Amino acid sequence: MPADTPSIVVLISGSGSNLQALIDAQAHNQLSGKIVAVISNEPDAYGLTRAHDAGIDAVVLPHREYDSREAYDGALIKVIERHQPDIIVLAGFMRILTPRFVQRFLGRMLNIHPSLLPAYQGLNTHARVLADGASEHGCSVHFVTEELDGGPVVIQAALNIAADDTQTSLKEKIHAREHLILPIAVNWFLDGRLQYSGTGATLDGIALPPEGLRLTHEDAADELDEA
Predict the structure, then answer these.
(1) Phi, psi at residue 206, to the nearest 5°?
(2) Residue 142 designated active-site
(3) For the residues 101-111, what does the mean pLDDT come to?
């Protein structure tokens, strides 16, 4: 890639399936940047193997070796800045970030979350959706702010919940939608189209609605060739 190609750092904690979606997009010249490092707070995260197999710098920074969240985030800042990324993508990074960290990279961090935000912020979204008897679920890409899962939403993909859906089936269907929309949002940012305004997000200079751009269930299913 050209020397001026935008750089991406991805933060993970687990299997890294969303990381793989970005790696696949890069391999097919469908990513407007280059993943220069993958950082995990969990030493046994399978996403590190995905990074290694793709020839990407895989960095382990175990949070348990630090005596406070502030100390860990300070170390994480140093590791990230060593790679000078244009964007930081949280792809299943299971850490609550300190205000210092968020402010350091505010406007340059995107996170993928398994719900149609602002509904179901936090953990265990699939179980909570089923417990509530909801008819719709989905996933969202949003800018990271100090409010947990509360930053401006960029893009969402909806899913109509079937009568026989389980946590397992929802997880599989939502993962497919995450893999669809995350590269889109990252490309928008790297192409200069997507920006954080402080009060929201803009795409091509136009303020996005609170739910961002939303793919309907039908649109997402068509893109994914679902039966």
Answers:
(1) -105, 130
(2) no
(3) 98
